[in-house]
């Protein structure tokens, strides 16, 4: 199934559910190279009740989590769409029913506030892929302005 991938595909791949599913749509996928996805930021999300009353701002940790979920979608969809095109020397494990967990986040930087009404666009690019461990570079932006960036490592459980 070519991009874009809607919420039904995302739900079939991701274990997350509301209120913690932070990817609404995948708009582009080049297997094993990059993914583009987004999250619509709405005022009715639970974090805005306390972060901060009268001045709602998406917590940075949730921006990092959204980029991490986009990275998990990237690996899952690349595995599904192009299993024979994985980088040389990588033996893909069976990922059905398995979960990827953060192992590290490096070079994390926040560049602008993200508020209700924004669309958080995410781009994830592969740095290195192993059978169980992978590294990606992730960037989140709003209206073309960089909001957050990080290099992330995930481990498949």
Describe the model.
The protein is of the alpha+beta class and 157 residues long. The protein has one domain (7-156): Thiol Ester Dehydrase, Chain A (Roll). Helix content is 18%, strand content 36%. It is built from two helices and six strands, in the order αββαββββ. It has helices at residues 7-13, 60-81, and strands at residues 25-30, 34-40, 100-110, 119-129, 133-142, 145-156. The chain has a six-stranded antiparallel β-sheet with strand order 1-2-4-5-6-3, covered by helices on one side.
Q: Which features would summarize this protein structure in a list?
A:
globular; alpha+beta; 157 residues; single chain; Thiol Ester Dehydrase, Chain A
Which residues form runs of ≥5 with pLDDT under 50?
none
User: How are helices and strands ordered from N to C?
Assistant: HEEHEEEE
N-to-C terminal Cα separation, in Å?
26 Å
Number of helices: 2
Mean pLDDT: 93
CATH fold-type name: Thiol Ester Dehydrase, Chain A
Major beta sheet, strand line-up? 1-2-4-5-6-3
CATH-defined superfamily: Hotdog Thioesterase
Count of discrete structural domains? 1
Q: Based on helices, strands and strand pairing, what is the structural class? A: alpha+beta
């Amino acid at each position: 199934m070519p991009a874009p991938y809607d919420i039904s595909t995302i739900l079939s791949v991701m274990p997350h559910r509301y209120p913690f599913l932070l990817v609404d749509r995948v708009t582009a996928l080049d297997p094993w190279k990059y993914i583009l996805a987004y999250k619509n930021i709405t005022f009715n999300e639970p974090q805005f009740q306390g972060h901060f009353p009268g001045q709602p701002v998406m917590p940075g940790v949730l921006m990092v989590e959204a980029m991490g979920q986009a990275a998990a979608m990237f690996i899952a969809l690349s595995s599904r769409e192009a299993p024979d095109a994985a980088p040389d020397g990588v033996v893909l494990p069976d990922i059905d029913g398995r979960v990827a967990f953060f192992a590290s986040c490096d070079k994390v930087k926040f560049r602008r506030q993200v508020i209700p009404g924004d669309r958080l666009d995410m781009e994830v690019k592969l740095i290195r892929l192993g059978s169980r461990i992978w590294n990606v570079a992730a960037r989140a932006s709003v209206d073309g302005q960089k909001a957050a960036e990080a290099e992330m490592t995930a481990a498949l459980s």
